Amino acid sequence: MLHSAKQGGKPLVSLSGAGVRRNGRWLVRGVDFTVHRGEIVTLIGPNGSGKSTSARMAIGVLRPDEGQAARVSGLTVGYVPQKLAVDWTMPLTVRRLMTLTSRLSERDILEALDAVGIAHLAGAEVQHLSGGEFQRALLARAIARKPDLLVLDEPLQGVDFAGEIALYDLITSIRNRTGCGILLVSHDLHVVMAETDTVICLNGHVCCRGTPAHVSQSPEYMRLFGARAAGTLAVYRHEHDHTHLPDGRVLHADGSVTEHCHPGDGHHDHAGHDHHDHSHDHDHDGAHQHEAASGPAHGEERRGEHHA
Ligand SMILES: Nc1ncnc2c1ncn2[C@@H]1O[C@H](COP(=O)(O)OP(=O)(O)OP(=O)(O)O)[C@@H](O)[C@H]1O
């Protein structure tokens, strides 16, 4: 593990003006962000907005077609991908899952499984794990490499709300214990870990960014999920000014349709605000916090993603 870089020092990874183009279309463009040691950065945005693409550029799995992706030398990355290419018809134990992509000693395996609370499942078949146990196994696999940077692409898939809180706690404790940087891709547009230092919202480019300082404190939220939940999750609310159509073109709030979107293309109300703290966009009242914290409302938020 790298010990030299400290938060505020040289970033572990940085993207500047980075974009990926495929089949004549920019999947994502003009992406700028950094992750330092000890920092938690969360990428949010609607489906297809370029979160995974940006995370993959950051760790070097994808090369940007414009702009730069830089990493400190000797960086070790622990990556939990959104999708895992595993043949589920083959028996696979948790122990074997851990060693599919890197050589690990039995001690490293057990230490990592212990850290995520599933040491007792080392010999269990992966297909028998619950959703939450499976996510923990993937997390164990990533942390067993003792990464400088932990990248979690939608780590809460298949995890219920109580499990979400437990996983967020776990991610925070890994950060606190090891000092690694964390890049999270959130499945949810509005709810992010309270410990997140920087939220970056993508919508084909960086739509806005800021700190999720306003943790939900509403009585309804507390009653539903308890004070513990309120201290763990934060609501980050804002609106987009354009939608990505299924064919890749972009529908803007003014009704115009263009091939691409870009912060400087004159169609974005918030163009030029990308580097500001969008505290004016955060929701501080309780009503939305309750809504955002309950699972089904997320889909509605996304469906309503026409954005003024
Ligand atoms: N190799 C590729 N070739 C062409 N298009 C691609 C490729 N990879 C991704 N895309 C497209 O790029 C866009 C961004 O994809 P990406 O996976 O980064 O989105 P995302 O924000 O992570 O979405 P989700 O929330 O649905 O996981 C999508 O429209 C996707 O279909």
Give the secondary structure arrangement, pairings included:
Blueprint: E1 13-22, E2 25-35, E3 40-44, H1 51-59, E4 66-71, E5 77-80, H2 94-98, H3 106-115, H4 131-143, E6 149-153, H5 161-178, E7 181-185, E8 191-193, E9 198-202, E10 206-210, H6 219-232, E11 233-235, E12 242-244, E13 250-252, E14 257-258, H7 286-293, H8 295-303
Parallel strand pairs: 3-7, 3-9, 5-6, 6-7
Antiparallel strand pairs: 1-2, 1-4, 8-11, 9-10, 12-13, 13-14
Helix pairs in contact: 3-4, 5-6, 6-7
Residues 22-23, 27, 45, 47-53, 82 line the site of adenosine-5'-triphosphate.
Characterise the protein shown here:
The chain is α/β, with parallel strands linked by helices. The protein has a single domain (13-76, 147-303), classed as P-loop containing nucleotide triphosphate hydrolases (Rossmann fold, 3-Layer(aba) Sandwich), CATH 3.40.50.300. It is 28% helix and 23% strand. It is built from eight helices and 14 strands. The strands form four sheets. A six-stranded mixed sheet has the order 5-6-7-3-9-10, with helices on both faces. α5 (161-178) packs parallel to α6. Residues 1-7, 214-218 and 269-308 have low confidence and may be disordered. The site of adenosine-5'-triphosphate (ATP) has 12 residues, from α1. One of its GO terms (biological process) is zinc ion transport. Residues 246-291, 298-308 have a biased composition (Basic and acidic residues). Belongs to the ABC transporter superfamily. Pfam families: ABC_tran (PF00005). This is Metal ABC transporter ATP-binding protein.
